[in-house]
């Protein structure tokens, strides 16, 4: 966007806001005029700087650059003098690179270092003690232009980046790192940059990538340790620092050993403290000493939980009265008089009736009461009208659906917000057991919004449990962005309340979410941390081991996956659903085992023992797992099982994500099997059947991948079939260029246009076929014939993007010169998500001219930045917003926004704006996966839409426009404009 060039001078002066500077540095790497102008400005500033300094001595002292306006005036005054001194300045600039290793350049004159991360430039990686600034850090320190020029002349862009990083200027550093070729050193320095920007997850991924190529990379190991520490994964961080210590680097080794010891000591103290408090709680429930005030202050949630049980197990009024100081302290912490009120009610009870029941309740809290005895106890408590004990006993029921209405009534009758939230949580779990995840999601979201806003410590324990349960629901619904948001909020609450076991469970669950989201470095870090925190409890490691196995499998490290399965097997439990899945996955690899079949069937039998599984998509998924495994040994039986999985899943597709997974995965296995054995007609029929398409007669390409395997089948312009199968991929698939063999491209070249039936995760990737071919991703069958509608064009433009996003203004949209009655517009403050969704319903053409951004914290795939809603401030239009909409006008949709075609590809679905629009009823969507220059967007897209309105097939229009554009202007961005139909 050309108007960004106007920001060059204030970027150099360091006066852009951090977000603006980050955006500008990305622009700088692609803008040759800006890069050339930047060098001119730096040279001019150097001349001015030299002219203003006293050159009488042997060295020139550096004076920090003046403010922007003053500096511009200075240039004007000293320019003649500067030019006269140019020759001397040029000698300084071209001095040999060896002189660039100055103490001032690398801040060597300071006794300690202020950058905690390590850099790979040798001069920037000399050990000094790390100094923490109590003010929160210095402002970026000025970099001598004289020294910068030396590095520039020497071509040491890594040195320039390092110098800026040492001075706390990540935006400038990033601009120079962008120029370097990929290497372990670059990844490690980028990890340092990410740490400085407060992005430890990104830093972890980068450090892991460096270490995959060079396992003993000292700086990457160090930066990995810092990233893990920032994520709260202290034992994993300690192991990383142990590896640094083992390298025996002077200074760094000693500091690494000290850091590892501190991290382990801190984790040990937290674990010991919580376990001690938990033991004191259990003792109090059994009639022992009441918790001390200091313990209550440190562990308020645990203390309140134990208070309720201590009241229930009290055998006399005197014991109840002994709990009064605890009740008063907790009421002061949480607000209200709820605990003192409950104490008063309990003291009035008949302990002749209550005493024997309380003794049984103690056994229940210890896990010493069998399920039949629990049912008997509940009945006795109900008859004795001991409501508080009844409320506690019902929580021990594994099936939350039992006595649901009675529990809710009892909980609300206490008037205690703790129990009100507990009732919502319990009902949400009941919803999940009934397969009503959507209902559970709504219930939990409303409860959190009503009771858990703000920063109050009140009912923190219950709020974190609601957040954790909602994260599980979002994970179950395969919404990893939302799941991660809730789980991170929950783990922060767990840490603030010192809830050590809750934090542990959330670490496991965050690892699962990271694996769902495809962040395998983060998944492994979380899971390994969970294992290290409780090494003695093998039975608690099933989730960690199996998710680690799946993470290794996704990186095509099948031996690593097998190793994790073996670790899980040693714990002696039958396979979970995830472990069963990995066993089935390994059936077609060299890591399979002869005894896998018996182990898998034992696990499936145990999983099917739960009646609720068969009633939900889990049953279909279990059927798929069996078929996926069996088809590798017995094709006919495996095919029958996969067909059965598809049939069972189909009625549940609209409401159950596991049903959708079972259907998609089963088609994957059937297609791969057909192509592998040369059954081309059958394979193409499966591609068509999955999308409810008629069997294509020509000019169609079907393509799918599954980990290391690739399968293609095509009909050329004459109807001839050809296919390709391989299982040779050894690394995760990143791009799709070259994935289609040349023989397929040549066979399709005579086609007028090609329908591409690409399955997840390939759907929506740019570059699958060359740009000179007319082709489109075929997402759904053509719409049924319906009465023609009068044209109704909607244009969304001139959006008021929220100021906090710091997005540059787009060019104003120009209406057509000739008045068009079919055209309506939403502009400025009116272009909100709600207004746009409503206006699209009847439109036959939709154009959205706005910024598109990729923000994983907000949405899977990309989002469109619209004007914020007046009340809620909501500005994002996401694929989730489009889902469920009905676009009755079957519009052609143009998403004239950067990254609008960027989608998050899972193995069971491609989730993004284009697919969401097609599924909502659009007949075609045009969108780009990367950036679109603002100055060129209208010139390219307007003629495309005009020709489509004339009835010319969209694939031909896009191909012709793309080729003309490449010939006339050479702008490569048009290559990644995609068509979905």
Question: What are its keywords?
Answer:
981 residues, globular, alpha/beta, 16 strands, five-stranded mixed sheet
Overview in brief:
It is built from 43 helices and 16 strands.
**CATH fold-type name of the domain at 793-980:** Rossmann fold
Termini separation comes to: 29 Å
Structural Rg: 32 Å
Give me the number of helical elements: 43
Major sheet, described briefly? Answer: 6 strands, mixed
Q: How many β-strand stretches? A: 16
The CATH level-2 architecture of the domain at 793-980 is identified as 3-Layer(aba) Sandwich
Main sheet strand line-up = 7-6-8-12-15-16
Plain-language structure description:
The protein is α/β, with parallel strands linked by helices and 981 residues long. Among the domains are: 1-93, no CATH class; 283-397, no CATH class; 610-669; 699-777; 793-980, Rossmann fold (3-Layer(aba) Sandwich). The protein is built from 43 helices and 16 strands. The strands form four sheets. The protein has a six-stranded mixed β-sheet with strand order 7-6-8-12-15-16, sandwiched between helices. The protein has a five-stranded mixed β-sheet with strand order 3-2-1-4-5, sandwiched between helices. Helix 2 packs parallel to helix 8 (170-177), helix 7 (157-166) runs antiparallel to helix 8 and helix 19 (351-365) runs antiparallel to helix 20 (371-383). The model is unreliable at 52-101 and 134-138 (pLDDT under 50).
């Amino acid at each position: 966007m050309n108007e960004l060039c106007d920001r060059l001078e204030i970027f150099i002066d360091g006066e852009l806001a951090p977000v603006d500077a980050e955006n500008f540095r990305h622009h700088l790497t692609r803008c040759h005029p800006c890069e050339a102008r930047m060098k001119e400005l730096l040279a001019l500033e150097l001349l001015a700087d030299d002219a203003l300094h006293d050159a009488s001595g042997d060295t020139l002292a550096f004076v920090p650059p003046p403010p922007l306006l003053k500096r511009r005036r200075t240039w004007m005054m000293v320019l003649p003098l500067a030019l006269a001194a140019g020759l001397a300045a040029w000698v300084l600039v071209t001095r040999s690179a060896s002189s660039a290793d100055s103490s001032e350049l690398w801040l060597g004159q300071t006794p300690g270092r202020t950058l905690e991360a390590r850099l790979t430039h040798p001069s920037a990686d000399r050990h000094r003690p790390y100094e923490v600034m109590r003010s929160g850090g210095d402002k970026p320190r000025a970099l001598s232009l004289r020294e910068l020029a030396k590095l520039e002349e020497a071509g040491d862009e890594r040195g320039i980046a390092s110098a800026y990083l040492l001075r706390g200027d990540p935006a400038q550093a990033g601009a120079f790192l962008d120029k370097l070729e990929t290497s372990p050193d670059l990844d490690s320095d980028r990890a340092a940059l990410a740490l400085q920007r407060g992005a430890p997850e990104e830093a972890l991924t980068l450090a892991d990538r460096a270490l995959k190529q060079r396992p003993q990379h000292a700086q990457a190991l160090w930066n990995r340790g810092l990233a893990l520490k920032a994520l709260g994964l202290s034992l994993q961080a300690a192991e990383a620092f142990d590896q640094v210590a083992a390298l025996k680097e002077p200074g760094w080794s000693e500091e690494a050993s000290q850091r590892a010891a501190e991290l382990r000591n801190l984790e040990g103290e937290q674990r010991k403290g919580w376990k001690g408090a938990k033991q004191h709680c259990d003792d109090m429930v059994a009639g022992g000493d009441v918790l001390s005030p200091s313990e209550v202050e440190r562990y308020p949630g645990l203390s309140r939980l134990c208070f309720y049980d201590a009241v229930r197990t009290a055998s006399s009024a005197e014991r109840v009265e002994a709990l009064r100081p605890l009740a008063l302290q907790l009421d002061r912490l949480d607000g209200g008089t709820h605990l003192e009120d409950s104490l008063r009610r309990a003291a009035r009870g008949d302990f002749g009736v209550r005493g024997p029941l309380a003794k049984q309740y103690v056994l229940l809290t210890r896990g010493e009461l069998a399920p039949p005895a629990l049912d008997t106890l509940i009945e006795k408590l109900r008859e004795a009208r001991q409501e508080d004990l009844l409320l506690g006993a019902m929580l021990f029921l594994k099936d939350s659906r039992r006595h649901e209405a009675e529990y809710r009534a009892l909980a609300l009758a206490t008037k205690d917000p703790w129990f009100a939230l507990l009732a919502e949580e319990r009902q949400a779990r009941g919803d999940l057991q009934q397969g009503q995840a959507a209902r559970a999601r709504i219930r939990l979201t409303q409860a959190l919004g009503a009771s858990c806003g703000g920063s109050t410590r009140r009912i923190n324990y219950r709020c974190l449990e609601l957040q954790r349960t909602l994260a599980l629901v979002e994970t179950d619904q395969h919404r990893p962005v939302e799941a991660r948001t809730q789980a991170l909020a929950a783990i922060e609450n767990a840490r603030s309340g010192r809830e050590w076991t809750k934090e542990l469970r959330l670490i496991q669950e965050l690892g699962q979410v990271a694996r769902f989201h495809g962040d395998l470095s983060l998944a492994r870090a979380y899971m390994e941390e969970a294992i290290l925190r409780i090494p003695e409890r093998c039975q608690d490691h099933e989730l960690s081991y199996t998710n680690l196995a799946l993470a290794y499998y996704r990186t095509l490290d099948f031996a690593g996956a097998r190793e994790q399965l073996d670790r899980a097997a040693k714990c002696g439990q039958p396979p979970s659903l995830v472990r069963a899945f990995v066993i089935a996955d390994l059936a077609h690899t060299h890591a399979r085992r002869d005894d896998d079949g018996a182990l898998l069937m034992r696990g499936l039998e145990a999983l099917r023992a739960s009646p609720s599984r068969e009633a939900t998509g889990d049953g279909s998924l279990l059927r798929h797992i069996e078929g996926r495994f069996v088809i590798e040994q017995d094709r006919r039986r495996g095919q029958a099982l996969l067909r059965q999985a598809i049939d069972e899943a189909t009625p549940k597709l609209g409401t159950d994500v596991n049903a959708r997974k079972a259907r998609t995965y089963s088609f994957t296995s059937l297609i791969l099997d057909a192509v592998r054995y040369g059954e081309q007609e059958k394979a193409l029929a499966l591609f068509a059947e999955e999308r409810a398409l008629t069997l294509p007669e020509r000019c169609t390409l079907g393509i799918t991948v599954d980990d290391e395997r690739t399968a293609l089948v095509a009909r050329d312009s004459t109807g001839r079939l050809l296919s390709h199968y391989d299982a040779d991929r050894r690394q995760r698939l990143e791009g799709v260029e070259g994935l289609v063999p040349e023989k397929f491209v040549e066979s399709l070249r005579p086609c007028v246009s090609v329908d591409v039936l690409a399955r997840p995760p390939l759907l929506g990737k740019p570059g699958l076929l060359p740009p000179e071919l007319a082709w489109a991703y075929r997402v759904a069958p053509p719409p049924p014939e319906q009465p023609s509608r009068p044209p109704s064009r909607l244009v969304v433009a001139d959006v008021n993007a929220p100021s906090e996003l710091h997005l540059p203004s787009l060019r104003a949209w120009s209406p057509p010169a000739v008045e068009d009655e079919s055209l309506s517009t939403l502009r400025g403050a009116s272009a909100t998500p709600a207004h746009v969704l409503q206006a699209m319903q009847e439109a036959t053409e939709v154009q959205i001219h706005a910024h598109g951004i990729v923000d994983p914290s907000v949405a899977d795939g990309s989002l469109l930045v619209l004007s914020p809603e007046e009340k809620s401030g909501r500005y994002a239009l996401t694929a989730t917003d489009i889902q469920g909409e009905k676009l009755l006008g079957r519009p052609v949709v143009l998403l004239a926004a950067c990254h609008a075609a960027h989608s998050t590809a899972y193995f069971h679905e491609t989730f993004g704006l284009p697919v969401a629009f097609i599924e909502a009823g659009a007949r075609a969507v045009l969108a780009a996966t990367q950036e679109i220059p603002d100055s060129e967007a209208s010139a390219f897209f307007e003629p495309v839409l005009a020709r489509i309105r004339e009835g010319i097939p969209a694939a031909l229009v896009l191909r012709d426009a793309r080729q003309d554009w490449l010939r006339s202007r050479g702008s490569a961005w048009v290559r990644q404009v995609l068509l979905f139909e």
